[in-house]
Amino acid sequence: MSSQNTLTKINLYDKLNAWFVSLITPEIPWLKQLRKENNYDPQVPTFDQPHEMPLEYVNIEGVKIRIAKSILGTTNPTIILLSTFPHSILSYSPIWEILKSDFNIYAYDMPGFGRSETSVEFMSFDFQGDFLHSFLQHFNVKNPHIVAPDVAMPTAISYVSSHKNDVQSLMIGDGPAILPGSNSSIIKKMTQSAFWRNMFVIAWSWALIESGNNLCNIKYVPNKYEISDFKESYKWKVRNTMKWFQKYEKDLPAINTMLSEITIPTKVFWWKYDAIIFSDDANTIHKKIPNSELEIFENSGHFVYQDQYENFAQMVYTFVNKNS
Description:
By secondary structure, the protein is α/β, with parallel strands linked by helices. It has helices spanning 12-23, 28-37, 93-99, 125-138, 152-162, 185-192, 194-216, 224-233, 238-246, 248-259, 280-288, 304-307, 309-322, and strands spanning 55-60, 63-70, 78-82, 104-108, 144-149, 169-173, 266-271, 292-297. α6 runs antiparallel to α7 and α7 (194-216) runs antiparallel to α8 (224-233).
């Protein structure tokens, strides 16, 4: 984790760029109301610092990625946590702290996301699914349970549909899987407009992280270590990350087709007040996946693994034990 003297902070320029994004985002007013109801104070972090995670770097098939792992033994179920955007695996520290006593846990920043290496060739659903296959082979992981919110969702779907596997369960939510989806204004800008993708590149990673906080949390307030890690994660990466969103609608039809072919026990989770991909998609995805359950979290934003970290961890705990 970042040390005190190397922290990168949100500055006035970041705030101004994020403020501009807020002006063109119609979902902001009702998010502000939800924060008000939760007595949300952006100056008071939920935790003073992240819970300890054993972060390290490994090279898998020529790609340098950041991971964390905690191994108890072969009799314990194994959970795989895939990174989200514009976060890194450090955002999982609250649920990591809860789950680590009972499960083997691996987490990794997907190539091109978080603190892992970036390249244009990484920015597709297919590549990420294939890389998950390589990751599991590299660590010889058997019978995993995969947790894949947000941008990780099509990664998990692509993997289980394209590779022979022994995955015990999937937990997926609030990510792209159907077309047309119930996308918010910000997703439409990122996927449909080269102009707006360029605007995000110009605004740089600082404004991206601040905008993510504004749009995706209504309870959880990240601490300075998390903010610094997220900002450093996307320093010099935003241009390549936007390539993932540029390919989004082209890649979605294949993912949509894969849903009905998933036979693994699947938990579809969503956020009632999601301002990124609206919760209407949750019911559609649930109906398409034959062996699935649906859970909608109340009083949460897009980052439910933070806003409702205790309930989210309990969902993972219960579903993993049920399907091990």
